[in-house]
Structures are given as structure tokens and as C-alpha cells.
Amino acid sequence: MNPSPQQCPVCDGALRVSELSCSTCRTRLCGEFPPPPLARLPTEHQRFIETFVRCRGVIRDVERMLSISYPTVRARLDAAINALDAALTQETEALPENPRRRAILRQVEDGTLPATEAAQLLADL
Quick one: which of 23, 33, 74, 83 has the fewest CB in 10 Å? Predict the structure, then answer.
């Protein structure tokens, strides 16, 4: 399966998921859903992380699987970690705290506000 594209083919801007659907009941959720941090990494980092995890973090096994030296594995690991740190930092900076949102969610959690009303209130923020 091909990975989902991350960049717009027209302007090179970042793409965002705008709809999710359930293959079982056909429920659809529309909105703007940012991709998870790992999905925002360049493909070469994603593939390296997949290999690293499949090798259970054993660098010797990564060396063998990719036919690269120990220093190269370490360099690629450091680069992937730095890219992930940047993606995580970008994610937390992009989500400013909204006290009204937090209050609405707290009311739903307490059972004092129905979820349908909360969804409308959140949509109006």
C-alpha cells in the first residue's frame, strides 16, 4: 500500500485529513484532522523507524537488515529522533489552550452537558 501523500502536489503545502469513515457501519466524521507526528516525518525517517522497531531496537540487527555501518545507523537514528522532536514541538505549539473548550469538555465528562450540545458548542468556537 502506498503511503498517504503529505504535501499538496500543486502548491507543496501540508495536507490534512478532512474525512474519516468506518468501513463497518459507514459512519463519516468530517473535520480537520492533523496527521500523527510519525506520519509527518519524511518517508526515509518513517522507513528507518519501521526497521528499527522491527529489529526491536537492536542496532546490530538494523546494521544487517539495511547493510549499513554502526555509525550510519546511529546517524539515521539521531536524524529521525530530531525530526520527530520537531514534529512533536510543532504539534504542541499549534494547539493553543482554549479555556472555553476545556470547560465544555469538563461538563460533558461530569455529565452536566449532553454530547450533542457540546459538539455544537465546540463547533461554534
Answer: 23
Question: How does pLDDT run across 71-83, given as a tens digit for each residue?
Answer: 999 999 999 999 9
Please check whether residue 29 is in contact with residue 21, taking contact to mean a CB–CB distance below 8 angstroms: yes
CA distances, 50 to each of 57, 113, 125 (Å): 10, 42, 38
Alpha helices in 1-125 (DSSP H): 43-54, 59-66, 70-94, 99-110, 115-124
Q: Report residue 82 as a C-alpha cell.
A: 530530531
Q: What is the pTM of this model?
A: 0.60
Exposed, middle or buried, 62 (CB in 10 Å: 0-12/13-18/19+)?
A: buried
- Dist CA 6 CA 16 (whole Å): 8
**CA-to-CA distance for 59 and 118, rounded, in angstroms?**
48
